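Record type: monomer structure entry
Structure origin: computed from sequence
Chain ID: A
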Amino acid sequence: MHTREEQMQAFGRLLDVLDQLREKCPWDRKQTNESLRPNTIEETYELCDALARGDQHDTMKELGDVMMHLCFYAKIGQEQGAFDIYDVLRQQADKLIFRHPHIYHPSQVGQDEPRPLPYGETEEEREFANAKTADQVLQNWEQIKLKEKDGNKTVLSGVPAALPSVIKAYRIQDKARNVGFDWQRREDVWQKVREELDELEVELNKEDKEKSTNELGDFLFAVINAARLYKINPDNALERTNAKFIRRFNYIEQHSIRAGRPLTEMTLEEMDQLWNEAKQQEKS
């Protein structure tokens, strides 16, 4: 691995390259926050895909693409006189220090170590500093964020509106948990799941689309809640199932191509048989 000096040189080189492209490249010169945003979303999903596949080489490449976008936004901010990459990095470091009093509170920092940010000596802050477990750190996190000068004004205001629905539901529930709004016993969530499923079935049988849509949302929210309580990430779980379905369906389609028969001419029983063959191959 590389030294910190080499890492800083590489980061500086990226900034230099971006400066040159912004000045000399017609495409880079015309970009704005608005024009970059769709590309940033795409690059972020490509990074997430590489992470899900466990592909280290692709992860490195996609991290570079995302990093370039972050630096590009900072460059535009600098041109507008609003902020530059220094402000971005400084504020992020300050934020991390402020949100980790169990590391940086004066009671946790040695006399010879730097104290980048001042902390008060209230009883609550001393309690934050005594966090020992990951759960305690998470519980403190949301309360600390509410104390920041330009932080979230409410617990759930920190959940981005543009998040995909499954991830958003998980984050909403997790943030509520961090301030004590949660099931006392995780087993109790199953009664809620069954209750929501029953209500969904009632509305589906009535063929009331509006109410069925609402009840389906309630049911999915309850299932995501159950997954969270059992420490299973529902988005990761669903993505595994997506990938599994694609593999098995591709197996059926490849068989139909070899047999010279379109999928539309195969019976459901034939496709089920091939589906089960694909399942057996995955187990072997």
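Annotation 1: The mean pLDDT is 87.
Annotation 2: The chain has 13 helices and no strands.
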